[in-house]
Amino acid sequence: MTHQIAKPGELTCLDEECAWSGLTVAADRQTCDRCHGPLGRVPERPSMLAAGRPAQPLSAPANPGAKRLLLVVVVAVLLVCAMVAVNSGILQRITGSKYKVGDCVTVRASVLHGSDLDRAECNPNKFSGNPMDIVYRVDAVKPGKNASCPGGYDRITFSDEPENTTYCLTMYKFG
Predict the structure, then answer these.
(1) What CA–CA distance (Å, rounded) separates 104 from 119?
(2) Nearest-angstrom CA–CA distance, 164 and 25
(3) Would you give the end-to-end CA distance of the chain in angstroms?
(4) Using CB atoms within 10 A as the burial measure, which of 35, 43, 158, 165 is most buried?
(5) Number of domains in the chain
(6) Which residue segment(s) compose the domain that 69 sits in?
């Protein structure tokens, strides 16, 4: 008699020590012919391999926690980029003052944004009549937007709020 490996739903010997364990047994038998042990049906969805080891899944399930973590990181990076785009002064607070002592600047007035400083060449001032053409030299850089500077007809104090810095400026020489 030829024996075949039992398929789901077929009878087989349940005794792992028996040589016929896992082989097909005729449906009319009550016990194993070889060891006289109990018989049982192979489950429709086998949970054990013929060697007696648990079946391994074909592919590991995806980790939903990793996907959520990636999504949170991407959203956080986008929020930081949006904050920096809206308020560029944040970067200036971290990196330090935009201008240093000895730099030359002009003051640019804006109706919407107040005033701002622009870097300029340290060339002597000309009598152009436009106050935005006046070149100033940075004499001091002080922390805080409410610091004070010495006064005078050729000196101004520029408070940079987003940067939280005060610049003491002196009008550059006329030539």
Answers:
(1) 6
(2) 88
(3) 118
(4) 165
(5) 3
(6) 64-93
Q: What is the pTM of this model?
A: 0.44
| Of the candidates 92, 96, 100, the residue with the CA atom closest to the CA atom of residue 122 | 100
| Nearby residues of 45 by Cβ (< 8 Å), 6 or more positions away | 8
Long-range contacts of 4-11 (CB under 8 A, 24+ apart): 5/50, 6/42, 7/42, 8/42, 8/43, 8/44, 8/45, 8/46, 9/41, 9/42, 9/44, 10/41, 10/42, 11/39, 11/40, 11/41, 11/42
Both 86 and 112 in one domain: the answer is: no
Q: Mind listing the pLDDT tens digit for each residue in 100-154? A: 888 888 888 776 667 788 888 888 777 676 667 788 899 998 888 888 888 888 8
Q: 72 with 134, same domain?
A: no
